[in-house]
Automatic annotation (TrEMBL):
Species per Swiss-Prot/TrEMBL record: Calcarius ornatus (Chestnut-collared longspur)
GO terms (BP aspect): cell differentiation; proteasome-mediated ubiquitin-dependent protein catabolic process; protein ubiquitination
UniProt-recorded name of the protein: E3 ubiquitin-protein ligase
Annotated SIAH-type domain residues: 1-55
InterPro entries named among the record's database cross-references: 7-in-absentia-prot_TRAF-dom, SINA-like_animal, TRAF-like, Znf_SIAH
This protein's encoding gene: Siah2
Primary role: E3 ubiquitin-protein ligase that mediates ubiquitination and subsequent proteasomal degradation of target proteins. E3 ubiquitin ligases accept ubiquitin from an E2 ubiquitin-conjugating enzyme in the form of a thioester and then directly transfers the ubiquitin to targeted substrates.
Enzyme Commission number(s): 2.3.2.27
EC class of the enzyme, as a word: transferase
Amino acid sequence: QYATTGCSLTLHHTEKPKHEAICEYRPYSCPCPGTSCDWEGSLEAVMSHLMHAHKSITTLQGEDIIFLATDINLPGAVDWVMMQSCFGHHFMLVLKKQEKCEGHQQFFATVLLIGTRKQAENFQYRLELHGSCHRLTWEASPCSIHDGVHVAIRSSNCLVFDTATAHLFADNGNLGINVTISMC
């Protein structure tokens, strides 16, 4: 199905659907969580789409930035999104608050590369929460936006913490996460 965009595999019809679901040449969906955006396009068009259709997303330059999630006490499911640009690539930083069990909310923080799975293997990210006497750190390789936030959460490739932990590190309802991107 994706031969016109570069896939050169020829598969038996029974293997085709499984491959198409993970094919690097399939169109990229809008990676912005929490929106009902139906956009699809090439990898090269993703950043242009985000800058034009999702203008509220802030982009910071540099390998080491602070991702500030404001009003973490908002009720219900909430997504905070920011972009980080370094090493000639763009990374999407996501903090997602979801209710996991009745009345029990969890936060999921992860980094996605606006790029392929192969490109994502070349990077590491570190997320740090700092408090007066506490520090919580998570280090991992970013997922590709082809996989998305839900795959990162489902595979536990993210920093997970509960509301009590969020409050331990928050300042007046705002949570600052230090984000450092490095090359492998």
